Amino acid sequence: MIKLLHFSDAHIDIASQGKRDPQTGLPIRVLDFLKALDTIVDTAINEKIDLVIFSGDAYKDRTPVPTFQREWGKRIMRLSQAGIPTILLVGNHDISPAAGRATALQEFSTLSVPYVHLVSKPEFISSQQLNNLPIQVIAIPWITRSGFLSAHQDDYLKIDEIDINIESITSQIIDHLMENLDPTLPTILTAHASIQGAVYGAERSIMLGHDIVLPISLVNRKEFDYVALGHIHKAQDLNENDHPHVIYSGSIERVDFGEAKDNKYFVIAEVDKGKSQISWRLLDGRPFIDIPVDLREINASENQTLPTPIEIKNHLEKTLIDSYEVENAMVRMTLVYPKDWDNLIDDHWFQERFETALDFHLLRKPIFSTRLRLGDDESISNLPHEKLLELYWESQKVSPEEIDILELIAKEIIYNQNEPEIIN
């Protein structure tokens, strides 16, 4: 049995704008990510972890500035100096789409850093390569569509054919690597990929290109004793209450407001042949507070009179009283209101009210008042969605040709809604 620490999607420089720490000169949000990384490294050392697997995406892209490379390198070197075998998997944000280019993590391989094993192509990692730990690892880094196309440039494949071929080739690669397995040792599969059935976090907002979605049957094989995945930011087990655990550990810190309600974790797993036990370790991240406010709820709007600025402030204060702890938080307020109230909203009030927040964003969503012309015998409540949209577009003077196109898109959205969003 070995004790494994699994984490992924560090993206330490993804939030490099905003207020800076006066002592280090680094952006405070970058320090949030580094704090999470320090917690992970401290845990690995203090709890005498046998093996660390990082499942990809150290940075926001493949060209991190030297300062962020230094900070990432410091943490990985601590693992190396502690003698902990560490696998670094190359993710889609670490890799260049051009063949032959170095990855963002290349220095660990170039400098032959002790105990650190960089995986930039599919690979079998034996027990001997892991300091004779009683474990073996199959590692699958991010597979690029461009790399596949360059190898099959004469085949003239369509996008869906490319995806099917990549899925087939990935399966063949895994099968080939499994030929090296020692049947007496437990096996870990680690991959940076989208797997069917995973629930997306906010990574779609920073996604580089269209994802290739691999079937879960590729990874939940009984030959594996733990599956360590990266790429999806929402922490989840795709094979819960069964063997093997198929774990997305998720990103180590909230990337944006799309992850406001998501807790962040890393995973400690005790892995043995035919069984594994996991422990989700909660990371103490920066709170993200998303505050929706609809000013149309103000009583003054019911009699069609404009509210006073004081009434608007009072409504906002009533909404905020004891509801939100904004100090040192990332705060966003989404304000919905009639367009003709624009001049009644005091921006200075928001600056004062959220002065203690680390960062505050006001997202204004003015509603333009438009009257729809209905027949004498028609009622809005009785109209189908498609008809309401058509009337709205006509009121906005959209051309009939554009309306036809918009209607097709709207029907696809209306009749193909899935909650929560699942990879199929």
In short:
With 424 residues, this protein is α/β, with parallel strands linked by helices. It has 3 domains: 2-283, Purple Acid Phosphatase, chain A, domain 2; 287-369, no CATH class; 373-416, no CATH class.
CATH topology of the largest domain: Purple Acid Phosphatase, chain A, domain 2
**What would CATH call the architecture of the largest domain?**
4-Layer Sandwich
* CATH homology superfamily name of the largest domain: Metallo-dependent phosphatases
Number of domains: 3
Structural class: alpha/beta
* Count of alpha/pi helices: 9
**Fraction of residues in β-strands:** 15-25%
Physical arrangement of strands within the biggest beta sheet = 4-3-2-1-13-14
Oligomer: single chain
Helix content: 25-40%
Largest sheet: 6 strands, mixed
* Gap between N and C termini: 35 Å
The gross shape turns out to be globular
The run of helices and strands is: EHEHEHEEEHHEEEEEEEEEHEHEHH
Mean pLDDT: 86
- Highest-level CATH class of the largest domain: Alpha Beta
Number of DSSP-assigned strands:
17
Low-pLDDT residue spans = 150-156, 205-209
Query: Measured on Cα atoms, how large is the radius of gyration?
Result: 26 Å
Name the features:
single chain, about 425 residues, alpha/beta, Purple Acid Phosphatase, chain A, domain 2, 3 domains, 6-stranded mixed beta sheet, 9 helices, about 25% helix, about 20% strand, globular
List the helices and strands and how they pair.
Elements: E1 2-7, H1 28-46, E2 51-54, H2 66-81, E3 86-89, H3 107-110, E4 116-119, E5 123-125, E6 136-140, H4 145-151, H5 159-178, E7 187-192, E8 194-195, E9 213-214, E10 226-230, E11 236-237, E12 246-248, E13 264-272, E14 275-283, E15 288-294, H6 309-320, E16 330-338, H7 347-353, E17 359-367, H8 385-395, H9 400-414
